[in-house]
Amino acid sequence: MSAIEFITKEQLEQHLLELDPESLVCRFGYPASKETIKRYVESIPETDLLFGIKVSITSERVASAVHLAINGKTAELGISTLPEFKRRGYGERVLRYGVDLLRNRGVTQIYSICMPDNSPLMALIRKLNITTVTSSYGQKEAMISIPMAGIDSILAELRNDRLIIIDSAMKPWAQLWERMLNIDTK
User: Fold this and answer.
1) Which domain holds residue 73?
2) Which entry of 140, 149, 173, 182 is 20 to 30 Å from 113 by CA?
3) What pLDDT was estimated at residue 176?
4) Integer distance in angstroms from the first to the last C-alpha of the chain?
5) Residues 17 and 34 sit within 8 Å (Cβ to Cβ)
């Protein structure tokens, strides 16, 4: 399993384009078209945080991705995982990492909208004891209060940064073994 790392807008767009219709509804609230996804990604400001877990250390394909739009002390969360990588704990890992990143940047609250039938996200919200409120449109609005940065959040971010360095150092060796064993990780 790869470390969580920052991703580009292009990688996020490719990830979103690979989502199945059900996952698109969970992520956007409706089955977003390719053009809608392209416009969405183009509109993301450079100040937003994009990160995820790649399929392997040798792949650019993103298995699970998060978009955090920061506005002062509040951030809006968008999260998605490719269908074949669901139920592996990736969503929980990237969400917990996002909380640590935001804590270390002074953000005190995360906001997310999810559909009531988005059972994976609702299960994650329950697991993490996150408060939800039902809006007038039948959607769930999750509000996560974040504690101030502490040594735990700083160490969590540093630990992940070290994993990225190790992944980078191991990438040439992993590519060599993939070629020798004729493995396709794309």
Assistant:
1) 4-163
2) 149
3) 60
4) 14
5) yes
Beta-carbon contacts of 112 under 8 Å, excluding residues fewer than 6 positions away, are 76, 77, 78, 79, 121, 141, 142, 144
- Is 182 inside a domain boundary? no
Distance CA 159, CA 101 (A): 12
d(CA 48, CA 88): 26
- Global pTM value: 0.73
Tokens standing for residue 23: 């996952």
Give 91-141 as a 3 state SS string: HHHHHHHHHHHHHHCCCCEEEEEECCCCHHHHHHHHHCCCEEEECCCCCEE
pLDDT score at 142:
66
As given in the structure block, the two tokens for residue 150 are: 């502490």
Q: How many distinct structural domains can be found in the chain?
A: 1
Residue 174 lies in a domain: no
In a domain, 178, yes or no: no
